[in-house]
Amino acid sequence: MITALDLENFVSILSQNIPVLKNGQTSPLKVIRKNQMGERSSYPFGAYQVISDSKVYDHQASVFPKEAFLENGSIDPTKIKLEKRKLVYAVVSFEINSDSFGQARSLAGAVWDFVDSPEGLKAFRVQNLNPSLVSTEIQDRTLVLPGFTSFEYRYGFDFKLEAFKTKSTTVDTVNPISNQVTLEE
User: For strand 130-133 and strand 75-98, is the pairing parallel, antiparallel, or unpaired?
Assistant: First the structure.
């Protein structure tokens, strides 16, 4: 499953790369979980929600034997390191919330462009994350606030966030190969 740390890394990358103009000053985009309890952020802000999370089974994992290294960097011929790599993913809904139609739409477009850009993919891959767009368009998710007096403009899209999870185990070899071979006549 995608971990909370994976989601925190995703939010951090968005915050660092999507500037917001507020009161004549540029600040990073604030991103929160949708439907969280407590005080809401001031407009504009991003909000995300995990719609579905994968369950990857062991039989889907690959096992790769590798040489086990000692602390000094030399190879230990009596050990083999096994790595299981699993692809895990979550489908995430993301939206920009604002009191301005234009601001919500333009920030959602900026996030969409960043997630789908080579620079964005490079930033995410450094954290072992690979986002891919699920939505084919940015959707209007605007709400009428209680009392029917104003709107909360929301524009967003859905994407799949993938990550490889690796589990390593070191095991003894069955018959270590000797460095000396003696031939008998």
Answer: unpaired
Quick check: bond before 65 cis, omega within 30?
A: no
What is the DSSP code (8-state) at residue 128? T
What are the beta bridge partners of residue 86? Answer: 165
H or E segment to which residue 105 belongs:
helix 101-115
User: For residue 27, what are its two tokens?
Assistant: 């600040």
Q: Beta 143-144 vs 151-172: how paired, if at all?
A: antiparallel
Residue pLDDT, tens place only, 10-58: 889 988 888 887 777 788 889 988 877 767 778 899 999 988 887 665 5
pTM confidence score: 0.72
Q: How far apart are CA 137 and CA 148, in angstroms?
A: 28
DSSP letter at 72 equals T
Let me know how many helices (H) and strands (E) the chain has, helices first. Answer: 3, 10
